[in-house]
């Protein structure tokens, strides 16, 4: 009799274990409002903002940060694949810079750098981005009295790692841009204010439970900062266009990837780890401000949120066995559940943040003869 009771309770426990959906939220860092950050130095922000819009930061003065990270489009562009330096074509989507100061680690879709200053250095010096030499940039900027004044005002009373206080150096230039990025933080986000509609609340429950999004999109930034393979399809435009393909091959060469002429896919985190199990992994992006940042994914393959939700509902994309993350499974969401999830994701977007182009930055610049793209 006693034995029987035990086995019945064991069966009941086993049934509970099998049939009660796992309480995922408890296992992962919870989502929540963005914590306050220390206010940046307003004078440094002014300098950083001027530099952000300044095409002199690129080798041939044809591109500024704002060309690819446009404030009117959530600090990205509507292109699936990003702009690139003349002569190259990019093979990845330009990510948003909204809230990027919260990222804290693993910058770039493949997570190749873990420091924001290093990421900015790469943006400026990489041949496919701005193709600029740091010393040359520094000297160019020193020629502009407006920049010189802003530097004195922003960095005059502090020694920001430079030997001469208040003097423009490439370090100061990057630091000022980072101070400007500190101001690109979401405002009036319904989720942060605890102001969710009933439908969005239902979406949040799905996000943390049945849909399992919280496994990777967690913490206040909605990202675990880690690489995962979700089976996002390749963007065929990368391989159809020899110029684009070659920009990618050149990047793989720079990163020391073997057999780079054979790959017909973006290998993602494998570029960094060189471990075959990491093929097709990309760093989990934030889900904040998605209202402004379509198209989505590392290659801009999905035009809208509905496509993304459908993708997850089907259990992600296809990949070779063992490569896809075990957390990506068919979800069986009803039409109304998909709508709720979408409403929740949209509740993570706040007021639009647009920064008018500062006046006079380019105008004071005297282009050398034959420099393309400078509009004075
Ligand atoms: C020619 C287009 C282009 C220009 C110009 C450009 N970027 Fe980017 N940016 C990109 C692309 C594309 C990526 C993604 C790269 C990758 O993942 O391989 C990126 C990534 C970044 C990231 C990492 C974001 C993240 O979530 O990991 C930061 C930060 C950034 N850019 C800032 C800047 C700043 C600041 C400037 C100006 C100094 C700048 N970018 C200029 C296209 C550009
Ligand atoms: C196993 C980890 C994982 C899970 C689970 C997951 N995601 Fe993602 N998510 C990612 C990664 C990694 C990317 C980037 C993939 C790429 O670009 O190839 C991404 C990208 C996205 C994007 C595109 C964002 C942008 O800026 O391009 C959206 C939207 C998104 N996920 C929503 C969701 C939703 C909704 C769920 C739940 C149904 C979910 N994710 C579950 C890891 C995950």
How would you describe this structure to a colleague?
- This protein is mainly α and about 375 residues long.
- It has 14 helices and two strands, in the order αααααααααβαααβαα.
- It has helices at about 1-20, 25, 40-50, 65-70, 115-125, 135-140, 145-155, 170-180, 200-210, 235-240, 240-255, 270-275, 305-315, 335-345; strands spanning about 225-230, 280-285.
- Strands 1-2 form a two-stranded antiparallel sheet.
- Helix 9 (about 200-210) crosses helix 14.
- Mean pLDDT is about 90; it is low at about 15-20 and about 360-375.
- The structure holds heme C (2 copies).
- One heme C (HEC) binds near residues 216, 296 and 308.
Question: What's the short version?
Answer:
The chain has helices at 2-19, 24-27, 42-52, 65-68, 116-125, 134-142, 145-155, 170-181, 198-208, 237-240, 242-254, 270-273, 305-313, 335-346, and strands spanning 227-228, 282-283. It is an all-alpha fold.
Series of H and E elements: HHHHHHHHHEHHHEHH
Tell me the strand order in the biggest sheet. Answer: 1-2
Main sheet properties = 2 strands, antiparallel
Query: What name does CATH use for the topology of the largest domain?
Result: Cytochrome Bc1 Complex, Chain D, domain 2
CATH superfamily of the largest domain: Cytochrome c-like domain
Mean pLDDT: 89
- Number of spatially distinct domains: 2
């Amino acid at each position: 009799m006693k034995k029987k009771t035990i086995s019945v309770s064991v069966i009941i426990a086993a049934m509970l274990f099998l049939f009660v959906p796992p309480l995922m939220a408890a296992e992962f860092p919870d989502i929540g409002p963005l914590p306050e950050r220390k206010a940046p130095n307003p004078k440094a922000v002014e300098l950083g903002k001027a530099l952000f819009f300044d095409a002199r930061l690129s080798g041939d003065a044809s591109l500024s940060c704002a060309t690819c990270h446009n404030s009117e489009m959530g600090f990205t562009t509507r292109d699936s694949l990003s702009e690139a330096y003349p002569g190259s074509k990019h093979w990845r989507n330009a990510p948003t810079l909204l809230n990027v100061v919260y990222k804290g680690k693993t910058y770039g879709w493949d997570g190749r750098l873990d420091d924001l200053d290093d990421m900015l250095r790469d943006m400026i010096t990489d041949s496919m981005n701005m193709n600029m030499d740091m010393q040359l940039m520094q000297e160019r900027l020193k020629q502009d009295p407006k920049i010189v004044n802003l530097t004195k005002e922003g960095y005059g009373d502090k020694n920001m790692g430079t030997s001469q206080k208040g003097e423009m150096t490439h370090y100061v230039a990057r630091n000022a841009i980072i101070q400007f990025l500190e101001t690109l933080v979401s405002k009036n986000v319904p989720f942060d204010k605890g102001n969710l509609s009933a439908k969005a609340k239902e979406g949040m429950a799905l996000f943390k439970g049945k849909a399992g999004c919280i496994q990777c999109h967690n913490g206040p930034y909605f990202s675990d900062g880690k690489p995962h393979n979700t089976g996002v399809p390749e963007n065929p435009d990368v391989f159809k266009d020899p110029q684009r393909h070659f920009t990618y091959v050149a990047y793989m060469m720079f990163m020391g990837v073997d057999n780079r002429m054979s790959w017909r896919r973006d290998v993602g985190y494998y570029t960094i780890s060189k471990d075959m199990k990491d093929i097709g992994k990309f760093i989990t992006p934030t889900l904040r401000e998605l209202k402004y940042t379509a198209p989505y994914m590392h290659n801009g393959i999905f035009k809208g949120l509905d496509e993304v939700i459908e993708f997850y509902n089907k259990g992600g994309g296809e990949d070779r066995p063992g490569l896809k993350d075990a957390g990506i499974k068919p979800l069986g969401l009803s039409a109304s559940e998909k709508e709720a999830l979408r409403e929740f994701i949209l509740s993570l977007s706040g007021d639009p943040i647009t920064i008018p182009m500062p006046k006079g930055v380019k105008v004071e610049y005297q282009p050398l003869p034959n420099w393309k793209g400078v509009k004075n």
